[in-house]
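C-alpha cells as discussed.
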C-alpha cells in the first residue's frame, strides 16, 4: 500500500469539510480501501463523529504528535494513537492542537511536521484524509505540505467564491516552495439545495470560473437533515441512511476519486 494523502479544505467555516472527510472515508472503505482519517482541527468535530466523547481523555492526539515532532522527540508507536471505528482508522484531535498552532508560529522551517508524522503511515493505508480548520495558519500550511491532493469543499449558499481564488493561490505557492507533489483533486459542491436559485447561480459561477482549470466533481452533495442526524448519532451516512441522496453522492465521490487515480 502507498496511501494517497488528501486534505479536505476550505477557508470558510461550515462548508462540510468534516462531514466530507468522515463520509468519504467510509465510502472508500466500502470500496475495499483501507483509510486513515486525521482530525487536524482543534475543534475536534471529526473526533466527535468517530464517537470520541471527551477528547481531553485521549492520551495521544495529533496535537501531542505534533508537539513531539517539533521537539524532535521520538513518536510513540502507531498502536498508541491510531484508533478505529467500524473499519476506518482515525487520529483524534483535542485542544492541544491549538497550543501547537501558537508554537508553530515561533518555529522556523516547521512546515513539514505533519508530513513527517504521516509519511511512515503511508504503507499501511490506501488513503489518508486530513480534516482541517477554516483558517490559513501554520497548521494548514503543514496540512498542505503533507498532502498529495486537496479536496476543496464549497457550500454554494455561503458566498462561495470569496476566498477561493486566494486559497488556490496559496496551494500553488506551497507547491512551488514546499511540496511539489501537491495538486487540487477538485472542487466538491456540498450542501446543495437544487430547489434554490442561489444554489444554481453559484454552482454555475464556480463551474464557469474554474472550467478547464480545476476539476469540479460530478458528485454534488445535496442538503439533507440526515447528515446532521448521522453526525449526532456518530454514524456514517452509509450506515445511518444508506439510501439517502447524500449517502449516494458520497459513494459516487469515492468512485470518482478512485477512477481519477487509475
Ligand atoms: N449535505 C448536508 N446537508 C445538511 N447539512 C449538512 C450537510 N453537510 C454538512 N452539514 C451540516 O453543516 C454543518 C457544517 O458541516 P461541517 O462541520 O462538516 O463543516 P466544516 O466545513 O467542517 O466546518 P468547520 O469549518 O467549522 O470545521 C454541520 O452542522 C453539518 O451537520
Ligand atoms: Mg470541520
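Sequence:
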Amino acid at each position: 500500500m502507498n496511501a494517497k494523502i488528501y486534505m479536505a479544505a476550505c477557508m470558510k467555516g461550515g462548508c462540510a469539510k468534516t462531514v466530507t472527510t468522515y463520509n468519504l472515508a467510509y465510502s472508500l472503505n466500502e470500496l475495499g480501501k483501507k483509510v486513515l482519517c486525521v482530525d487536524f482541527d482543534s475543534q475536534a468535530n471529526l473526533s466527535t463523529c468517530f464517537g470520541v466523547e471527551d477528547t481531553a481523555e485521549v492520551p495521544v492526539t495529533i496535537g501531542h504528535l505534533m508537539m513531539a515532532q517539533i521537539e524532535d522527540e521520538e513518536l510513540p508507536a502507531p498502536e498508541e494513537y491510531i484508533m478505529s471505528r467500524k473499519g476506518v482508522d482515525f487520529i483524534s484531535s483535542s485542544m492541544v492542537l491549538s497550543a501547537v498552532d501558537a508554537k508553530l508560529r515561533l518555529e522556523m522551517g516547521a512546515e513539514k511536521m505533519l508530513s513527517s508524522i504521516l509519511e511512515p503511515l503511508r504503507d499501511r493505508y490506501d488513503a489518508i484524509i486530513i480534516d482541517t480548520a477554516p483558517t490559513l495558519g501554520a497548521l494548514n500550511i503543514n496540512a498542505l505540505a503533507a498532502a498529495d491532493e486537496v479536496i476543496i469543499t464549497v457550500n454554494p449558499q455561503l458566498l462561495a467564491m470569496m476566498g477561493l481564488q486566494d486559497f488556490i493561490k496559496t496551494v500553488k505557492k506551497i507547491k512551488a516552495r514546499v511540496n511539489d507533489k501537491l495538486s487540487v483533486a477538485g472542487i466538491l459542491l456540498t450542501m446543495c439545495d437544487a430547489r434554490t436559485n442561489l444554489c444554481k447561480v453559484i454552482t454555475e459561477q464556480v463551474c464557469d470560473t474554474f472550467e478547464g482549470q480545476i476539476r469540479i466533481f460530478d458528485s454534488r452533495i445535496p442538503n439533507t437533515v440526515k447528515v446532521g442526524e448521522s453526525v449526532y448519532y456518530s454514524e456514517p451516512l452509509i450506515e445511518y441512511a444508506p439510501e439517502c441522496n447524500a449517502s449516494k453522492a458520497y459513494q459516487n465521490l469515492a468512485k470518482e476519486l478512485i477512477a481519477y487515480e487509475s
